[in-house]
Design goal:
Layout lengths: L10 H6 L12 H10 L10 H24 L5 H7 L3 H4 L4 H21 L3 H30 L5 H21 L4 H9 L3 H4 L23 H23 L10 E6 L8 H11 L2 H6 L3 E5 L11 E7 L2 E9 L3 E2 L6 E2 L3 E4 L5 E4 L1 H9 L5
Parallel strand pairs: 1-2
Antiparallel strand pairs: 1-4, 3-4, 5-6, 7-8
């Protein structure tokens, strides 16, 4: 880019747009700030329409991610949050929420370190992965069922909100100096119970999660489990393309064989605990997960399976069609679905988990 050649882009043009807004749209100051923080200023920096558009798309992604979290936190408050962080559910090493808090604590520490070294491109790269992968592609896809189907005072739903609130705080903390206008707008939409008496995010004192949250005895086992999940999702996509299953993952079961892993190993115990609490099905986005251990003699039949190496162990992960009837409330298939009468006198088929939640909310006629 050379001023003498005239191939320059004025900052004001990026912020307010050019004469033809269709060709040169207004991207706002935050887009320019995000671009400037995402490039390596120690080398020659290039700028153009594509790089500005990429920054603009990432800001839209941040806004959509934050919008989802804000909507899920309307019934949440700081007192509830402080109590929840001391709840046994978040102290359980086999809890998904406990794993997510360990991830958030690790990301917070890295943001603090990069910020003290003024390595803003690393902060942007790190948080891009956190927003796109850890939140949107992973945790959001799992927690929606809990947020939509569990009662408001359910401990699991409140624990999910605790993770969402800490995720929101991390996003605001990391991006506050980079895209201040966007983060200030997010802060304005926080409920008074979460915002406190402060009028601006930039006079808020950020208290990161305690470093003890980073210490998780089952972190290695969770890493293995997520590798298995990733392999299962690949199998699911393959079966969809070949029309072996429909587009709805709830019509399938995941099948995991741990026959080569000792029954009393930390990994087997983690998988067993998650399966008994029905968290494993949420993790794999299916109606259920069939797990066989070292002592089991038979493995359920699969439409497709694959062997995965995990250090010195091997795991067989496969996909099978779900059995039973579809629950009209959570859309999961179960052999225990029962017909019930709603308050509007309409018939529906409900699984035991939804039955319990609906009784709690007095949703029956």
């Amino acid at each position: 880019m050379s001023k003498s050649l005239g191939n320059v882009i004025e900052p004001q043009q990026i912020i307010e747009g050019g004469k033809d807004l269709k060709k040169q749209p207004a991207n706002g100051a935050d887009t320019l700030r995000l671009w400037s923080c995402s490039v390596d200023f120690t080398n020659d920096v290039s700028i153009g329409t594509s790089s500005i558009e990429k920054s603009s798309q990432f800001i839209r992604k941040i806004r959509n991610t934050v919008k989802f979290m804000l909507g899920c936190l309307q019934s949440y408050n700081l007192d509830l949050h402080k109590n929840m962080l001391r709840h046994s559910m978040l102290e359980d090493a086999s809890s998904l929420e406990r794993y997510m808090l360990a991830v958030i604590a690790e990301y917070t520490a890295q943001v603090e370190r990069y910020g003290s070294e003024f390595q803003f491109p690393k902060i942007v790269q790190l948080m891009e992965y956190f927003v796109n992968i850890q939140l949107s592609a992973f945790y959001f896809s799992i927690c929606k069922d809990r947020l939509y189907t569990l009662s408001v005072d359910s401990p699991l739903r409140i624990a999910t909100q605790a993770v969402l609130f800490e995720s929101l705080r991390l996003v605001m903390f990391a991006f506050g100096p980079i895209i201040p206008h966007t983060i200030e707008e997010v802060y304005e939409f926080l409920s008074p119970e979460l915002k406190g008496n402060h009028q601006s995010f930039f006079i808020e004192t950020f208290a990161p999660l305690e470093k003890t949250w980073k210490i998780l005895s089952t972190f290695k086992e969770w890493t293995w489990l997520l590798e298995i999940r990733g392999e299962f999702l690949k199998i699911l996509d393959e079966c969809r393309l070949e029309s072996l299953v429909s587009g709805n993952p709830m019509e399938t079961h995941a099948v995991i064989s741990l026959s080569s892993i000792p029954t009393e190993s930390n990994f087997s115990i983690l998988v067993r605990n998650l399966n008994e609490s029905n968290v494993l099905a949420d993790l794999f986005l299916t109606s259920g997960v069939k797990v066989t251990f070292e002592t089991d003699s038979e493995t359920p039949a699969c439409l497709r399976s694959r062997t995965l190496a995990l250090n010195e162990f091997t795991v067989v992960v496969g996909l099978a069609s779900a059995s039973g009837t579809k629950c009209d409330r959570c859309w999961k298939f179960s052999d225990e679905v029962q017909p019930v009468l709603n308050l509007d006198s309409s018939d529906c088929s409900i699984c035991p988990k939804c039955m319990e939640n609906m009784r709690h909310m007095n949703a029956f006629a």
